Amino acid sequence: MVEHTAARQTKRFDMATTSQPEAKLTARQDREKVILVQEIHKYYELGETRVHALRGVGVEIARGEFVTIMGSSGSGKSTFMNILGCLDKPSAGRYLLEGVEVSSLSKKELATIRNHKIGFVFQGFNLLARTTALENVELPTLYARISKAEGEKRSREALALVGLENRVAHFPSQLSGGQQQRVAIARALVNRPSILLADEPTGNLDSRTAVEIMDIFQKLNDEGLTIVLVTHEPDIAQFAKRSIQFRDGKIRRDEPIQNRPRASDVIKNLPTLED
Amino acid sequence: MDLLAIIRIAMRALARNKMRSILTMLGIIIGVGAVIAMLGVGQGARETMQEQIQAMGSNLLFVGAGTLTRSGMHMGWGSTKSLIYDDMLAILRECPAAHAAAPGSSSSGQVVFGNDNWATRVNGTEPPYFDIRSWPFQQGSAFTQNDVEMSANVAVVGETVRKNLFGATDPVGQTIRINNLPFRVTGVLAPKGTSAAMGDDQDDIIMVPLTTLQKKITGQPWLRWIMVSAVSRPASYAAQQQITALLRDRHRIRAGDDADFFVRNLADLADVADEAGQVMTMLLASIASVSLVVGGIGIMNIMLVSVTERTREIGIRMAVGATEDNVQKQFLIEAVVLSLMGGVMGILCGLGASYAITQTLGWPVLVSPLVILIAVAFSMGVGVFFGFYPARKAAQLDPIEALRYE
């Protein structure tokens, strides 16, 4: 079983290395800022009390970066992710996504931005039950201006990219946790977004599967995809290139990660289920 | 996102909860079915009434002797001694719109044949009466004009009288006694049934020559009514005016005074009956449509449950780029698909019920294509109306909250 998974990942790795032109393109745009956040505040009114979730956060994320956001619960990292994902608007401050001022957009325009520019991966996978893997991946294409045939073609490609080309007709209940999360990643990628936002993507997975998911993220990042990942596990965070730490609604630390390991190497040293 | 894709998603969502969808549809099925069946019954009844009035002769005019009030007592129509045989001759002579006419007077009588007896109405008239009313004979024939001139003791019996007096015996040529006078039966009228317009049994009758009735039974020379047929149906209004003018003149009624007779146009009667039929149809349909509203509320209820149940799905859809509009459309179309499918099945049930009513109760049922069209449109309207609020609720969910919903 484990041997089988490893074999599939090698295959995917081959696929990743074949798409050279795309990698060159992203190298040229390396300097470009995908995300520019300036002095963002967020308050919630909870009855009488006012909760200050973000107290002036500023950050720049360039194309091709792999950022991990860490912090204890209540540190404001989830609120920050919701704002980055255009699910929420900041109470004050500026957020530019690929140069577009997002905080002034209407709900409808935000939905379009989520559809075109953002791919979400959640802790709980959030796949539609009783809907096949393929149809789950197709979901974002239904809301984009692309044909049904094109949507299906892209969905199959995305599923192949995460090594699930043989599971297209399976329902989520027939897939393992790791496979479900890979379907979710394929869904996040299908509209070719500018950034991938992952909120505790490994929280519901065992350590080996978690590393496998990080392996997928690293390879996608190698191809030029910008990734922002929220996690509270340092083991997982170490696979990223840059670490941002939140505490009490502020950025506490923002530093590059030294000596980051390759997830594919880590998997080899992990004990297999047979041990 | 094109409509076809949304409809496909809606169908799939409904197929996921088959039992629930079918039960929800049942409300609409019963509602639409009831409306269709009730409209069908109403239409059928209306059509039957029209047919019966047509059978009575739609170009028929009925001239009746007027009402009389004596010492404050209302005596009912026909109580004035004003209408005479010469009036009828004058109508035939001077009203160009009148085609034929038959005089009449009536009395009630006890009829005896063998050991059986029957109380019925005895009308005196002349042979043209049967033509004017287009009333054929099932056995024998009418008495002749000669019988009228001779005041012969001959009679024609209606179906109800035949059934009650003769049973299996052939009545033609038999002698019956009316108020103790012997009469020879010359014919039996074909059954006409209960009059839809008036509600009385038209077959419970005996017709004798007018002169026989006047001289031997009532002893009075006046007429109670004159039956006139106009040259055509449109001409019946002209005939009505001509007869009214003529008789007012003949009876020397000054302008402004009430006439001592009345002229009733059966075309009017047809209109009144038609209106009554329409009122009845609307009444039945409005009662049935209450169940349609109840069905609509069922849809709303289930859609609300569905929105709550699928909060997470809505959150996911919004996260991957569905706009409020997309979500609202999805749920609205789901409700419309539900009600429309219910509507179509309801039509089939309604048609089935109509057929069953025709078969078991023998009522004519008429379902027009327009009614079906209205039913489809109405069930769709129900879906839109009752689906709007749940869909709105779904669309206004906060994606963050929806994604967190357990």
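qc> Chain A touches chain B at residues 82, 85, 87-88, 107-108, 111-112, 114-116, 120, 122, 126-128, 130, 139-140, 142-144, 148, 187, 191 (CB under 8 Å).
qc> done
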